[in-house]
């Protein structure tokens, strides 16, 4: 059986200052953040819903029971560079601070997908869920409250959860999807404080049974004009930009004639701003002219397609 280091990348205990900074830097995702935090709190801290009901209704209202049997799965779906992975890796910090218990972030390693040997993927996934259950089932504290929680992140989830309806699907891949579903079901049945986050560029490729189990599906889009302006304003604090220069930059990073798509968040954070800083360093100050020159010379990342 595979050992934990082979199954997961470095485990992160939250709250964590680096994760907090990363979470706060994700502008333009406020609506997703708000719902995600509520959904996660209800799954990772189950008694909080009853506490809410008692506080505002002085009883346990039946409406709360609608949340009782939900599977602890979130689907993060959207194009490359739209913030899926960054949010998946950092939202647990905010939740940990809200519920007052540490959350352990486990990110499934690519090695867990195995080499294709018969039964290997099934064993690896079973071992991964065994570890998640072990940590999530740590002895509760006073009043039977759990003293920790777990987030299991599976990035590029379509590689593990690809639809079994595909006629060309290999038997081992089908077995892997079955193992994933069994793992999810085990967390649901035991009602452990654990959440599985499946991030994918291809929502349509995810197996229907996995999609049905998602407590919530969050769709990530490329930033619109308002979101790009907010992101650029945040990124360029301390840089003197005139209003018209910022407006020109927002326009240059959006859809243009001949390019029906704009910049992704990753394009702004990881390509545009670093390239502009390098263009100014070490002899000039960073200004709107440099930023606009770089923005018009870079190519926005093309949308992901199934053929890519």
Please tell me how large the radius of gyration is: 22 Å
CATH class of the largest domain: Alpha Beta
CATH topology-level name of the largest domain: Rossmann fold
End-to-end distance: 34 Å
What does the largest sheet look like? 6 strands, mixed
Major sheet: arrangement of strands? 1-3-4-5-2-6
Structural class: alpha/beta
Mean pLDDT: 90
Number of domains: 2
- Unreliably modeled segments: none
Which architecture of the largest domain does the CATH hierarchy give at level 2?
A: 3-Layer(aba) Sandwich
- Strand proportion, as a percent range, falls in 5-15%
What's the topology here?
Blueprint: H1 4-7, E1 12-14, H2 17-25, H3 30-44, H4 47-57, E2 73-78, H5 84-99, E3 103-107, H6 120-136, E4 149-154, H7 171-190, E5 194-200, H8 208-212, E6 216-220, H9 225-235, H10 243-252, H11 265-280, H12 288-297
Parallel strand pairs: 2-5, 2-6, 3-4, 4-5
Antiparallel strand pairs: 1-3
Helix pairs in contact: 2-5, 3-5, 6-7, 9-10, 9-11, 10-12, 11-12
Summarize the structure in short.
The protein has helices at 4-7, 17-25, 30-44, 47-57, 84-99, 120-136, 171-190, 208-212, 225-235, 243-252, 265-280, 288-297; strands spanning 12-14, 73-78, 103-107, 149-154, 194-200, 216-220.
Q: How does this model look, in words?
A:
- With 308 residues, the chain is α/β, with parallel strands linked by helices.
- It has two domains: 217 residues, Rossmann fold, CATH 3.40.50; 73 residues, no CATH class.
- The protein is 47% helix and 10% strand.
- The chain has twelve helices and six strands.
- The chain has a six-stranded mixed β-sheet with strand order 1-3-4-5-2-6, sandwiched between helices.
- The radius of gyration is 22 Å and the shape is globular.
């Amino acid at each position: 059986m595979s050992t934990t280091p082979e199954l997961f990348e470095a485990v992160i205990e939250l709250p964590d200052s680096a994760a907090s900074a990363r979470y706060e830097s994700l502008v333009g995702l406020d609506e997703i953040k708000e719902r995600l935090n509520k959904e996660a709190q209800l799954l990772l801290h189950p008694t909080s819903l009853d506490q809410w009901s008692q506080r505002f209704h002085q009883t346990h209202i039946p409406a709360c029971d609608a949340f009782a049997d939900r599977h602890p799965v979130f689907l993060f779906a959207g194009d490359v560079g739209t913030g899926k992975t960054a949010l998946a890796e950092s939202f647990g910090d905010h939740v940990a601070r809200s519920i007052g218990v540490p959350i352990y972030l486990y990110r499934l390693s690519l090695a867990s997908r195995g080499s294709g040997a018969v039964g290997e993927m099934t064993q690896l996934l079973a071992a991964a869920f065994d570890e998640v259950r072990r940590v999530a089932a740590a002895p509760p504290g006073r009043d039977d409250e759990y003293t920790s929680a777990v987030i299991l992140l599976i990035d590029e989830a379509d590689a593990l959860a690809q639809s079994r309806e595909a006629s060309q699907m290999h038997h081992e891949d089908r077995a892997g999807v079955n193992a994933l579903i069994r793992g999810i079901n085990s967390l649901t049945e035991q009602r452990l404080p654990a959440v599985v986050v499946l991030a994918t560029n291809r929502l349509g490729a995810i197996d229907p049974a996995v999609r049905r189990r998602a407590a919530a599906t969050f769709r990530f889009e490329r930033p619109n004009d308002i979101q790009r302006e907010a992101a650029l304003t945040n990124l360029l604090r301390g840089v003197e930009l005139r209003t018209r220069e910022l407006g020109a930059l927002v326009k240059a990073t959006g859809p243009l004639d001949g390019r029906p798509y704009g910049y992704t968040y990753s394009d702004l954070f990881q390509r545009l701003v670093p390239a502009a800083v390098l263009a100014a360093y070490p002899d000039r100050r960073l200004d709107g002219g440099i930023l606009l020159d770089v923005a018009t010379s870079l190519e926005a990342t093309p949308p992901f397609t199934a053929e890519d």
